[in-house]
# Entry
Amino acid sequence: MKKPKHIIDKLNALGKEAIPFVFLVDFEGDNPLIFNPSETDKILWQTEHSSNFEDKKPQKSISEWETHPVSFAKYEKEFRRIQQHIHNGDTYLLNFTQPTIIETNLNLEEIFSLSSASYKILLKGSFVCFSPETFVKITDGKISSYPMKGTIDAEIENARELILTDSKELAEHNTIVDLIRNDLSLVAENVGVEKFRYLQRIKTNRRDLWQVSSEISGDLPANYAENIGDIIYTMLPAGSISGAPKKKTVEIIRKTEKYTRGFYTGIFCYFDGKNLDSCVLIRYIENQNGQLIYKSGGGITFKSEAAPEYDEMLKKVYVPIV
# Structure
């Protein structure tokens, strides 16, 4: 992740003056954007407690949804390369993602309006995101992160027990919790795991899913607001959508994914002048010259098998419209 000094300095200055802002950055850090929170001509956004628009549902429903993912053969080829890197010790967890072409009767704005999610972002003409995953929250000087690792079809018999007892899922989740704990320790003190592997049910247009998350928290210094830009960039890219160790894993991601993530798996932040709320840009649809592209993926470890990982990637191609 690139660290542009002028952007970090601007965020720090806004934090010091307690001036609210909205911030977007793509996965590679090439395209950081700062907005006034009330600005609506380019971006619409919603968190659990704030938004910059009036929620008006269009008189339309989803009647068409077809997906055209990469072939399993193509996926498996790169999966095997990742496994070789894991066996060589280059990485021990890598979040591998791929694009899926989608056909639907809805445009980005309609998907945004009809979706229900913890976080919704519409960068007009570019992408829509309906993310269930918090990146970090800062509340009264306490910083918390909520990495999400583990997905299963909620309709499977004993789905909750299956995902919580799966050794591969446990190893993957442990790795991410350790990584995020280390990331938080770079900016905070008294870092600890508040909640470990709790379940959230996600409703979608295709099926319900169980997602597994944890909560890790720490205490920031009293002057944290004037260093808000440094805090954000120190933790980028998010561990849950890159892997461990971060630097080498991101290098492997670039070589194996063979496409540009763009804002997918980047970060959205809203700072209200004192506290910050942010999300990872997952569950994401991009407009590429009129063609809608859904980007999704999952974590690969030494215990992973290609077919289940491919299936998980496809299960994440949904919209939270019911």
About this structure: The radius of gyration is 19 Å.
